[in-house]
Amino acid sequence: MTASTAPPRAEGRGDGAPPSRAPNRLATSGVLGPSVASGGAVLLAAIALAPVFDTGGWFGATVITVAAVTAVGGVATWARLPLFLVPIVQAVALFAVLVARFTTDPPLGFVPTSDAMAALREVLATGMGEVNRYAPPVPVSSAVTAVTAIGLGCVAIVVFVLQVNLRMPVAAGLALISVYVVPALVLDEGAPWWAFAAVAAGWMLLLISDERVGLVGWGRVLRRTEGGAATSAASGLSSAALRLGGIAVVTAVALPILVPSLTDAVLGRHPTGFGSGEGTGNAPDQVGLNPFVSLRRDLLEQPDAVVLRYTTTTAAPSYLRAVVLEQYVGEKWLPRALDPATATRVTDGTALQVAIGTGVATTRQTYDLTADRLVNPYVPVPENATAVRGLAGQWYDDNQTGTIFGIDSTTKDASWSVDALAAAPTTAQFQASTSGSSPDLEQLRVAGDLPEVLTADARAWTADGATNYEKAILLQNHFLQNFAYSTAAAADQSSSAIESFLRDRSGYCQQFAATMALMARSLGIPARVVVGYTPGTKDGNTWVVTGKDAHAWPELFFPGIGWVRFEPTPRSATDGGGVQVPAYAQSLPPAATDPGATPRPSSTSVNGKLGNLLDTGAGAAVPFDGPAAVTTADQWRQRGLLALLVVGLLLAAAPAAWRWARRRRRLSASASVEDAWEELRDTALDLGIDWSDARTPRQAVAGVIAGQHLTGTVAEAATRVGRVTERSRYAPLPPSAEGLAEDVSAVRTALLDRVDRSARLRAILLPASLRRSDD
Amino acid sequence: MTTKPTGAGPSDPTDVSDLVQTAARIRASVETVIEGKADVVRTALTVLLAEGHLLIEDVPGVGKTMLAKTLARSLDCTVRRIQFTPDLLPGDVTGVSVFNQESRTFEFRPGAVFANIVLGDEINRASPKTQSALLEAMEERQVTVDGTTYELPSPFMVMATQNPVEMEGTYPLPEAQRDRFMARVAIGYPDTRSEMDMLAGHAHASPLDDVRPVADAALVSRLVAVVRQIHVADSVRQYAVDIANATRQNADIRLGASPRATLHLVRAAKSAAALDGRDHVLPDDIQALASSVLAHRLILTADAQIAGRTTGSVVTEILRRVPVPAAVRV
């Protein structure tokens, strides 16, 4: 699958052979090599997709598709079809392969009839649905394989046309990069390094192949080896292509690291993805996701983006709940499986269940909410919502958690109003609530062992508490008083993230909420974590919720009262300031402060630990517009474009930079006469000035002077360069190279002045001299 | 022979300038007779200083013999002329041993070849046997008769004229013998002005009578020594070899340039460089002389001949293709 399997066959032809035999072979080799290279490059790039899928089952179909598209393109090019027909023929071949492979019982075998296309469309729609639903690694199904195959088939067409027909390997490389963008954006941890290596290798393959074609097309340059045998210069060319490509790749990798303001698009180490989530949900109705990731993203990356706005009848609005995380499995929090079968369909008239203990005072409130950048399968609603109106689409209320979730519906551009009850349990009611909760509550279950330090701390902090209520407040207050808010996580690698959090005493809402919930559970209090938003800030009559209002908090269960919010997260400027400790949780004597515990804000940068606190293990991600997500699709599209733009710019600037570095070296003080001469030659080549290696320096300079109408001092300078070069090469005593660099510069300036702007730009951005192999 | 420059050695620039002046005098002298043919005269001088032999090929009457005679007369040295005819014998060229009745010994009578400059007029009219007698002397610079070897004088240069082979009564030179000539020149018809001047000049007397020697054999020998010391960079040698190789691999050529051709090419280039006042050879010199030095040695394929190509055009084509080396690659 490398170009070496298809060396241009014309190389075998001796120079003495009559030229009349050549054209046919040349034509074949001019197609075969680049075709194989383009197909091989796409397949190499396809390797980069491997981490997105759970098995390699998709690769076979991709190989067949890419091979078919490339082969058909090759034949079409060989048969000299008009250029515009080549991709069309390839597209037909692509659909034929897909129809034959993926539709059941296609009417006419592989012929893409309209029926077959309809069937294929269905398969693709299914595949797209699965891709959108599942977190990576996406389970490989036939439909997903079809989606992958068509995607890579399209890339193969683009690469083929750019590489073989248009001879633009650099642009073809951009098409390859588009493949790389998928794992780089989808995977939470970014694409693995070898994915980039695979794409880079594919690009190198294109460059090498193109160099070979260029060489064969212009005839063969003989050069001698040590043994005196004449060999083709093609191998030397390849190394030139490799050098150039290598520098471009290294630049692309290194620049984002060196320039801090650039996102590290290539290595993909930015700490986000499409929301890391849980890939267990294989049933279509289960939505696997990890809301914490989007929570963090909102907090850190889009603090000022407006998520939603609302008006309300109350002066002190409730927190807005989106998702409830109940299961703590394998050191991470998961939402419960949301199943429409057991949920209540939300329509305008439906009364939603709320579990508030009898005797708890409630106030009726109304909210009118409008999504701004919120695109989300969960509807943020106030606590204890009793009715939700105005939602279009299929929405369900999970009775256990009060989560309103959509099936094939999101909150994009949605407006809804909510009736809710604000509960105000009294201290007496809390104190009266005993720990009589049933032990098999999901909210008590902790899979795996909790860190020793967590359970020990929980016991120590609540030693003074007599009731669950007191213990809960002691926990909360201990966090509030001894911990600091920081969106940076400790870089400690020695133990689990929870331990780091407890030791460093700094973190942000997710860690506070999750840790307090776990501590409560270790004390026997049912607890869960809610992800949503604080009430936001009031702007006139409207409340505005922005990304920095994204929040997570614990809810604890008290028999006779219900689920009650606590607030262990300290206030901070960066957290929107909307954090409010509920009235019922403020009334206990403060917990004994730990004398050794001073809040220690962490100054280390965000790293993987941050997300790992509750999300260790295989972080998987669906293209998930998280519970608190602010239209992430747009955001990722922008980032993808930005990444493409950066890579494209780097690639585009690489030749100019390479040429510039060369010129600097050649015109430096230590440069030789030959260096200056090569600079003059390359300047001429860059500008498309006729230049032949069969000319002597004297003739070459005379040709440039006559061809470009150089006069006066510039002509003298050019002549001087020629004469000095001549003497340097052929005279017994080498001449002085003094002033040579200035002469070359003067000639270069004059030559640049004599061409029009487009030629000048081409000379600077796409220096033709870089295609030369011999230096 | 990588010549290390030595301060006062023969490659001293003053020596070259001496050569340039002398060459200019000779040329001026020759051009008083052969008008409007500066390049031909220059090539002839180049060959003389490069210790080569010159083949002048053209139709009768354009001044072949006149060129040779004038050049010979401009140099104060021995000149012999051999008119080649079909009945000319080898001994006429090289000399014979005759029995001296008085001394009762064989005495060697030198033939026409014993001179500094030998004009071989219409060399292709002689039989191949006689031709070879001269050509052997050219190469060896000595004559062996009856077991005794006689050195030829120095400088020694044969200027042979030849009619194009299509002319009647000619024996074309075999390729092996053509190879012995360093260069071939064609004189060509004079332009109108030159021809009119010639008519005016030849009206009263032969202009040859007015030619006076401007240099002697010893001076020419010194100049030849200077030419020998001209520096040739390895890359220039490489260029010459590349060109020769290209003729050997060219699809239009049946017989390519011999190693002797390469040798002649570089020697001629050295001479040309010296005439230009340079102490080193440039690829330009090689290019300028490649056609003169190589063309007469090459044999085209039948196809190329039918296609109307000439060896000269093929050499020009090769020069357009072979890269000029900046440094030695081997």
Oligomer: heterodimer
How are the strands of the largest sheet of chain B arranged? 3-6-9-1-10
* Number of helices in the DSSP assignment of chain A: 21
Strand content of chain B: 15-25%
Strand order of the largest sheet of chain A: 11-14-8-4-19-18
Tell me how many strands of chain A there are: 22
Query: Which residues of chain B form runs of ≥5 with pLDDT under 50?
Result: 1-14
User: Structural class given helices, strands, pairing of chain A?
Assistant: alpha+beta
Give a structural overview.
- The complex is a heterodimer of chains A (775) and B (330).
- Chain A is an alpha+beta fold.
- Helix content of chain A is 45%, strand content 14%.
- In chain A, strands 11-14-8-4-19-18 form a six-stranded antiparallel beta sheet, with no helix packed on it.
- In chain A, α13 links the parallel β15 and β16 (506-507).
- In chain A, α3 packs antiparallel against α5 (142-165).
- In chain B, a hairpin with a 4-residue loop joins β4 (95-100) and β5 (105-110).
- In chain B, α8 packs across α10 (259-275).
- Chain B is 45% helix and 16% strand.
- Chain B is α/β, with parallel strands linked by helices and 330 residues long.
- In chain B, the strands form five sheets. Chain B has a five-stranded parallel beta sheet.
- The interface between A and B is medium-sized, with 27 and 29 residues.
